[in-house]
Amino acid sequence: MDNIILSQIPVQDLLALVKQAVREEIVTNSTHSNDTSIDKPVTQAELCKFLGVTEPTALSLRKKGKIPFFLVGTHVRFNIPEVMKALEDTKYKNKKK
Fold it and tell me: Are residues 15 and 53 in the same domain?
């Protein structure tokens, strides 16, 4: 513990960084795991809970074509790894501009 570095970072920024790191690990490990629960289709409410966003935000992302979805009958469903990949791709495209 000799190399402790203290930094002033707002709590909200720290929480956002931790959430993003956890999401990335979940997506990375979901492709190597035998647990198929992350690969099952999820509802918009479940996606919002996973991403930590509101339903209007998820709806906006879907309508703008920023996250992939599919229909089961008339019900909208999402695949979490595909959504995470799309959001990551969007994030990197925006950084390059």
Answer: no
Residues 90 and 66 in one domain: yes
CA atoms of 34 and 2, how far apart (whole Å): 39
- In terms of pLDDT, which residue wins out, 9 or 2? 9
Q: Where are the alpha helices (DSSP H) in 1-97?
A: 11-30, 44-51, 55-63, 80-96
Q: Are residues 67 and 85 in the same domain?
A: yes
Alpha helices (H) along 31-78: 44-51, 55-63
Mean pLDDT of the chain: 82
Q: Does residue 97 carry a pLDDT above 60?
A: no
